[in-house]
Amino acid sequence: MIYVALLRGINVGGKNKIDMKVLKQTFEQVGMNDVITYINTGNIIFSHNSLSKKQQSRLLEEAIHNDFGLQIKVVVRSIKDVSEIMNAIPDTWKNDKDMKSDVMFLWDEIDDESVLGNLVIKPNIDTVKYVPGAILWSVDKKNMNKSGMSKIVGSKIYKQVTVRNVNTARKIYELMQAQNG
């Protein structure tokens, strides 16, 4: 089975620095196969056949702590999970000069549609959708300062997500599909 591990808060602003080549070795040493990394922000595609996603997360968090001395949250999603998320993203969503579109991958503890009730969503500004495993958000960049979702940073929910822009999320899925052969 093909999976992606999404690490929260590495190589951002000079903090929690992790070399992707060394991280790849860490994954291989704990039994993950066909390991590839994508950009420096902690996106690792791999295959594994025996452990559950929760077991993989725990094993990888422990290995990262042992190898790098960092307490990093690892969200693991299967290719099926990511496929469902990608299918829920409208084709028109982009991350470019005019539009900001993000995928907020949720920790399992808050992965429920009720999480939307804890967000500040301005219906005429923000487009927000829940799909199992993620919150999808898009806003015209000209309305960023009016967005309710921009206030998520620093909130309790923000500490329980790892965010990828829609372009990165699509590339991760493309790499997972290539691994799936």
Automatic annotation (TrEMBL):
Pfam families this protein is in? DUF1697
Signal peptide, first to last residue:
none
Q: What is this protein called?
A: DUF1697 domain-containing protein
